[in-house]
Amino acid sequence: MPNMLISLAHFCDKHGPRVLLGTQFAQDGDALLLPDYPTETFCDSCSMHFPSEDTSSRSMRTHLNSMYYVSTNYPSVRYQLTSSVIRHMFSEETMSYDSTPFTFFDQAKGLNLVMGFKLPDTDARGDERRYALLLTIDSSDHASSMKILAKHWEFITSGFKKIIDYIKQRRETEVRRNFAKNSSGDFTPMGGGYLKGNKYKVPRNLSYLTNDDLLFVRLHKWNTFMLDVLNTNE
């Protein structure tokens, strides 16, 4: 059984390509945890958000069908692999942000299925923030990896699209809410940001942009469901 990882990635204005959340599985859940990591290298845009004020816990874990599914902002076991993958995909000229899936493979990065999307935000460079969901099959065996991907293509792409549509719908609702609240002032949901210099751009967490404190909990649960299906129906 190849190692598989579902990640939510973001191109941070300050730090470049970053993993927002990576979900992995193993029989030993503790092996996937990293008790501490250099949080000073993460801004609000490239960090997970927890609904509790207690942020000492930096992971979410679910035990299901004899496996532990763990989501972290810093996937310790495969962070180097995931970082290499997202740097590659965000630099690809073929990368699109309309939720169109594309795949790439090499011996070092394994087989990857990526679906990118954008969210409007006047506090971001270019008035938008770029994200991507990706499934990584960490195997040098291209043929067996492609069999898994082909077998579950509809399940994976439709699952990713549901997540993306939920995030985009939440963001659209929040933009409209802010516009209504500030309609008497100079606030515009899409315009005006280009008049600001980049020094005025501020990091915004995805949970803030969607007004959903439970967003990363939802992502963990959905990633766990998808990985469990792939794991048990390989």
TrEMBL record:
Pfam families: Folliculin. It comes from the Eukaryota. InterPro entries: FLCN/SMCR8_DENN, Folliculin, Folliculin/SMCR8_longin. Signal peptide: none annotated. One of its GO terms (cellular component) is cytosol. GO terms for biological process: positive regulation of TORC1 signaling. Residues 51-234 form the UDENN FLCN/SMCR8-type domain. One of its GO terms (molecular function) is GTPase activator activity. This is LANO_0B03070g1_1. It comes from Lachancea nothofagi CBS 11611. The lineage of its organism: Eukaryota, Fungi, Dikarya, Ascomycota, Saccharomycotina.
